[in-house]
Amino acid sequence: MLSARQLHGVMPAIPTPVHADDTINVDAARALISYLLKQGIDGIVPLGGTGEYGALSRAERIRMAEITVKEAAGRVPVIAGVLDPGYHDAMQAARDFAAAGTDGLLVLTPYYTNPTQAGIRDYFMRYADESPLPILLYEIPYRTRIAIAPEVLHELSRHERIIGMKACNTDMWHFLRTVAGVDESFAVLSGEDTLFPLHIAAGARGGIVVTASLLPTAWRTIYQLAADGKTQEALALHRTLIPLMNLAFAETNPGPMKSVMDLIGVHAPDMLAPLVQAAPDVSAKLRVELDKQLDVFERRA
Q1: Arithmetic mean of pLDDT, 218-228
Q2: In 10 A of CB 172, how many CB atoms?
Q3: How many CB atoms lie within 10 A of CB 204?
Q4: Less CB within 10 Å around the terminal CB: N or C of the chain?
């Protein structure tokens, strides 16, 4: 059973390679996972926002989970995103992904209904009680418009089946208050590429990192520096990736990233509606920047 002790290091949030007919591009998915495993990543997170969860059919979500589990072959944890806004659909996803062999679930804060903090607490408590797998909370208020109060996170962290969280709240004061009160058995993971070394320095045990799908070695190096207390060195290295992050997130993720993944041997630029492929100028600039960073990190490794 997946535990908080296994939640550390760099876990890429991976895009879902698809064909033009919206079905999984199996060869590209396998190529991506193989590439990441060879670079020594610590876990894989398919089917989050980067994985275009909401645009995939339920059958293709399950298929992507099965592909990821098969390719990972037990070498690293596979934590599948669950982004349904309603409880029963979210619980059905839990059952589907457990049957597919995933190790854990990354469960999004319920959105659109604008629940109270009591409602959020009760939702996750019930979900954890009924889930077939351990869960990580997924707090991303700039997408859901709902932040989870630190004191609610503290209480949820004491549930034996809630083992961690992906922290995407860009408010560092919120992050510091969260880390200060969570249970020792609970792993806070950074969910923000842009704040990753600061989150590690402030108590995160690792991160679920979007652009680690492109540059796993770079992010693993930043993580190790920060985890070793070499914060200034980690920040200096992180600073060199700012141009790449600016371009990768210049349009809605994963559009820009998908457009350049052929540089790492994964050719699957197609997007799922309502997202579209990145603008040519954004893609071209990101291609130049990624090529430069690959020379520095991955091709040298």
Answers
A1: 98
A2: 12
A3: 30
A4: N
Beta bridge partners of 166: 138, 189
Identify the CATH class of 4-228.
Answer: alpha beta
Does residue 301 register a pLDDT over 60? no
Q: Contact at 8 Å (CB) between 4 and 164?
A: yes
How far CA 218 is from CA of 205, 209, 244, 294, 298, in Å, comes to 17, 11, 12, 9, 8
Whole-number Cα distances in Å, 60 to 8, 52, 158, 195, 277:
28, 11, 34, 32, 20
**What are the tens digits of pLDDT across the range 269-279?**
999 999 999 99
User: What is the structure's pLDDT at 300?
Assistant: 64
Strands of the sheet containing 9-12, edge to edge, are 9-12, 206-209, 187-190, 162-167, 135-139, 104-108, 79-82
Report the catalytic residues: 138, 166
So where are the chain's domains? 4-228
Is the Cβ–Cβ distance between 10 and 206 less than 8 Å?
A: yes
Residues in the chain: 301
**Pair 162, 2: CB distance under 8 Å:** no
Residues linked to residue 11 through DSSP beta bridges, in sequence order:
208
pTM for the full predicted model:
0.97
- Both tokens of 235, joined, read 């920040």
